[in-house]
Write a structure and sequence with these properties.
Length: about 160
Amino acid sequence: MIAQKIGRIDALLFFVIWSCVGLLSATHSYGALPIIVFLLVPASALVGWRGTVSVRLILAGAASLRRAAIDGFIGGAAFVLVIWLWGFSNAALAAGTVFDGLSPWQFEFWLAVATTLLPAMGAAGVVGALHGIAFFFLNRWLIRANTPVNPDAPTSGAPVT
């Protein structure tokens, strides 16, 4: 039960902070709304899910800072990969674009991957690792702050036997 609550806190915190960043950096406030809806909502769901998993690992004693950083890196890089493939497939399937006739067997395809996808995945992976580390410490603090009044009560939500 506490794992889902802390996962929701992680997702909400991620959504609010990055929404504020997006709204403050946009020249027109409505310009950031599509980014918030189509990118930030799924990213927040990913953060909430990973937060729930992280709390369960912390409660089981199997969590570590290294694991949180690696999970964050993989999550950030995977999120960018999905977005890149979505945008690439939309452009490739549109009629009359620069991707007409482009094949994975051509050098130009791998040049596009090397110059656009790989640096973006690396940068998103580093940002994801930093988020993973920050949420690891936040989740540990939230678990300690939400100890039950009854010290014999289970913290994992398991039924009392």
